[in-house]
Design a protein that fits this description.
This protein is an alpha+beta fold. It has a domain of 238 residues: 2-Layer Sandwich (Nucleotidyltransferase, domain 5), CATH 3.30.420.40. The protein is 38% helix and 22% strand. The chain is built from 16 helices and 24 strands. The strands form 7 sheets. A 7-stranded mixed beta sheet has the order 18-19-17-16-22-23-24, sandwiched between helices. A 6-stranded mixed beta sheet has the order 3-2-1-6-15-14. A 3-stranded antiparallel beta sheet has the order 4-5-8, with no helix packed on it. A hairpin with a 4-residue loop joins β2 and β3. The longest helix is centred in the last third of the chain and has 24 residues.
Length: 492
Amino acid sequence: MNLYLGVDLGTSSMKMLLLNSKGEVIKKEQEYYSVHNFNVIFNEQNPNDWLNAFIKGFKKITLDINKEEIKGISFSGQMHGLVILDENDEVIRPCILWNDGRTEEETKYLNNEIGEEFLMDEVGNICFNGFTLPKILWLKKHEPESFNKIRKIMLPKDYLVYRLTSNFVTDYSDASGTLLLDVKNKKWSKKMTEIAGINDTMLPKLHESYDVVGETNQTFNEILGIKKPIKIVMGGGDNAISAIGTNTINVGYATISLGTSGTIFVASNNFINDKSRTIHSFAHANGKYHLLSCILSAASARSWFLEKILNTKDYLNNEKDMKDNIVNNVLYLPYLNGERCPYNNANLASGFFNLRSSTNRGEMSIAVLEGVTFALKDCFNRILEDGIEIKHLSLTGGGSKSNLWCQMIADIFEKDIYKQEFEEGPAFGAAILAMVALNEYESCDEFFKKNKIAEKVYKPNESLKKYYENKYKKYTKLYKVALEIIGINNEI
């Protein structure tokens, strides 16, 4: 039976799933690497760490596997990261990541001086701190020597594809988050490249996510121990590829992802201009479009509280603590790295509210999960204002391992929540795309029609409806408090 490898290039690790043509998981692998935090808001990674993780992971996952049965590899990648290469194809500097907050000044320049109206007309989105274009402008101002060396600009997963195939390519879903792509018309914007001070030759060739863009080159055939080259399928941004994995393909379907960041992804047949300008309008990996809302701290907020504040990695006992404290008065704002949607404010910071001398770690732990979920509901409500009707809501990401959190989301959103038996949605989606690209299936729809993927359903608890309604109302009032007290330039 043919095998397909899905690779998810995440922020803290690379996850791999090896699937057979029925969508059954044959093997899993995960390789970790570091984020370099130079101060409160600077977050960078060495692109070669991703390449080394891929090589190590590939060798482990193919141990005792006939590599010639692997027909295709595709990718899901963390979005917005700025990877730059010089004339010798060497990495010039570490990648500036999606959650890096250094570009506040450039973001304001683009939104206020270039103008939101212009940006909406030209590329379909306003600028959010973390997008790729403001990073390029920051580099031009603060590191002109690096900027002047640029010959190629790419996104994280594109770097892997480039090294594996020697082809300089990207896809529409990932390129949507650069602010350089005219998303509606699926082409690079000449006006935006002029604003960036770059030229078209520095940008990769655009593809759909399901396009075959090459095959493993001789160098990597030798490194990976491959006798016959493997086809490489483009793949896309992590949320779009995760949506493929969770069958969020058709109108009315949406996915919540609880990864390092938290997102809400809504499938659409057509390009939609968000009226509130707080939601991203991007291309989908299926060739159509989607709306995306992103908060910067989701599962990372929980790991921060457990590991840095409670000094433990015992998630199981923490879950027990929380079960005994579901109903409490503690509130939490999850702005550990500022916030993207819907506030677009890099200066916001986190905070607990309503603490008492009787407050315990279980109450604070549950408040962290509530705060993240309330922030996601904030985004969800903005999406509904665009006239979108959601009839099927899925859940994916590492945070979905927690049954307690899954149930909380069902309670707070007041909707049935569907979750697959595994949380590696992006890697799963990448493998499905490889199957479609190599004619194992005609479409992603056909894959899900022919292969029943087990799902668990979480139904809202009616007894907690009033409790969460009241607590959410209180939460929505806290943003102004955060802005006035802990969010003004983050200064004391």
